[in-house]
Amino acid sequence: MTLNESWTVMNSSSTELDSRRPNTHRRCCSFLFWSVITLSIVSVVATATVIILYLNKFPLPFFSKRGGVSAPSVISTNRDSGAVVSVSRGTEGEPISIFLDPSCPDLSESFLRWESLQSSLLRLLSNHNAADDWQDTGLVQKMGEELKTLTGHAHNLRLEADSLKTGQGVLEQQLDVLQAEQSRTLQALQQLHSGLSDALLSQQREPESQRRTNPDQQGGSRGTGPSPSDCTDLLSSGVSQDGVYSVFPTHDPNGFMVYCDMTTDGGGWTVIQRREDGSVNFFRDWAAYRDGFGKTTGEHWLEDVLPLRSGGGYELRIDMADFDNATAFALYEDFSVGRDCVNPEEEGYPLSLGGYSGSAGDSLLKHAGMRFTTRDRDQDQSENNCASYYQGAWWYRNCHTSNLNGQYLSGGHASYADGVEWSSWTGWQYSLRFTEMKIRPKKP
């Protein structure tokens, strides 16, 4: 066979194979198609059969056998016919009666027991649910009760805290009362000590005082001249030494002892107040300042200083020194207390002064016109008693720029303005070491 013949035979075989392949494919597709059709028909028939059988056995209430809407069935007992139950479909159908076979056993008791059992189970289930709800409710109630208890405890704690605060306030008040009583006791002891010291010192110095005053007193009593009414009269009579002398003001012919400064600024000064060592308590009542206290040769407030001042116009000189031995003074050309008063004591011994000069600054001008205030007689313009507040006695206004009768403290102090103060010189927190107030008649 030649080559061309071989190629011809091969081409023919290929063509025959290609022609057979589509036929085989078409046969497969046809088989699948008819299989699906057959299964669909069988499914439809089976479904229809099931529906018909179901409807025949359980007809729908709204379709009658004729295809129309049927009347609702009526179920009733039919005791006359002996049936237990009769079922009728309106007026068209015959009633269907249900009878019990006489030989059938009586199951009513069993049904009753089952119903009772069912009721019991329902009750148990209900009780179980109620128990669960009760447990939840009980838990909530328990938590509520615990919350109420905690709230009650908190309220009790708050009441106890308030009670403690109240008790603390009462204790503080009682402590203040005790401190006040202690302060009064200390003051009484200091006054007693001062009185004893004054009496002892007077006994010790009586011979010297008699020696110093006898010549003057003898001169006055013998008619050689008028009795000295103050230290200026003694200076005029030739006395030039500082010391304690007797003077006889016109209002007190019996006389009393004073300390005379015969050297400072020309002399003739009658000392009415001195602070130098803190040995005498100056925080005293009205009667003490009216009658005088302390030692004439030491710390004192002159007895009868208030009557002494009212006889006429006086100069006032205040000498002072600090704890560094620095000195200063304040001089007032016009000084009096209770001037032009009908009853100076009842009117509070008001202060009059003017004409300042000196090196300490004017810390008394603010007090001009004020009445004298002590711890037991408040005559200042403050809502508090300045004498009690600043531990002194003075012509306070509201309250002071000077407090020469305050507590004797050692220089600088933490408390405010309650020492021996002269604010224009050392401020309000420095207590002076030495002060001396003295008066003499104004020069003509």
TrEMBL record:
SMART domains per record: FBG
Top-level taxon: Eukaryota
GO cellular component terms listed in the entry, alphabetical order: extracellular space; membrane
Comp. bias intervals (Basic and acidic residues): 205-214
Major site of localization recorded for this protein: membrane
Membrane spanning stretches: 31-55
Entry keywords, A to Z: Calcium, Chitin-binding, Disulfide bond, Glycoprotein, Membrane, Metal-binding, Signal-anchor, Transmembrane, Transmembrane helix
Cited NCBIfam families: GGGWT_bact
Entry-linked PANTHER family: FIBRINOGEN C DOMAIN-CONTAINING PROTEIN 1, FIBRINOGEN/TENASCIN/ANGIOPOEITIN
Protein's name according to its UniProt entry: Fibrinogen C-terminal domain-containing protein
Organism field: Champsocephalus gunnari (Mackerel icefish)
